[in-house]
Design a protein that fits this description.
Length: 227
């Protein structure tokens, strides 16, 4: 049986032809697919149906994709891939800042979308997470706790912390961290990893300002140290 069997992908897209093409390609890869063409209907559907992943268009009638992404992150860590025809860097960064796990710029190849979906789902269903006395990661719910307080992490931040926790004291290069996060091996800049690490550190510090958990090693990368 395919490892994608029975996983449901929700497409929130108001272009019927594009949504239909994506549906056909995803179904060929053994995913179940649901389509919503209006932002106002998306939230209720997501809350009731709990899809495995959401393909979310940025520009929608009714509630826009950024608002939906922000609201979903208020109660769920379901993977979200943003779809956008607005290629300006500010839109890309804002989409990720809101908690999206990835973004794809239109026009795109449907095969690329399927590859991205598979890569993001692999990250969210990988091996159990390491934990320390201070930090506990729960892969089944994608939740993280520091000193028994919940850390509100995006899926990307969760995967970064998981990788660093897997071998405390080991220095991971930016490329090694990128390979963990972006398994489709796309080209991204070092600043992308630096930005995610900065946000992760800030969230850890907000719950425990007395300790530095993630350390920079100049010219090399990052490591996790138990306090």
């Amino acid at each position: 049986m395919s490892d994608t069997k029975k996983k449901t992908i929700l497409i929130v897209e108001d272009e019927p032809e594009l949504a239909g093409i994506l549906r056909d390609y995803l179904q060929q890869s053994d995913y179940q697919v649901q389509i919503i063409d209006n932002g106002n209907a998306a939230m209720e559907h997501i809350e009731k149906n709990a899809p495995a992943l959401i393909l979310l268009d940025l520009m929608l009638p009714g509630k826009d994709g950024m608002t939906i992404c922000r609201e979903v992150r208020g109660f769920s860590h379901v993977p979200i891939i943003m779809l956008t025809a607005r290629v300006e860097e500010i839109d890309r960064l804002l989409g990720l800042e809101l908690g999206a796990d990835d973004y794809i710029c239109k026009p795109f190849s449907p095969r690329e979308v399927v590859a991205r979906v598979k890569a993001v789902l692999r990250r969210s269903t990988s091996v159990p997470n390491p934990s320390t006395n201070n930090i506990h990661l729960d892969e089944s719910t994608y939740k993280a706790h520091l000193n028994e307080q919940q850390l509100e992490l995006t899926a990307v931040e969760f995967e970064l912390l998981k990788k660093l926790l897997s071998e405390p004291g080991r220095i991971f290069s930016r490329n090694q961290l990128m390979d963990k996060i972006y398994q489709d091996h796309r080209i991204v800049s070092d600043r992308t990893i630096d930005s995610h690490i900065k946000k992760l550190r800030k969230k850890l510090s907000s719950l425990d300002g007395d300790h530095d958990y993630i350390h920079s090693v100049y010219g090399v990368g990052y490591k996790y140290e138990n306090p």
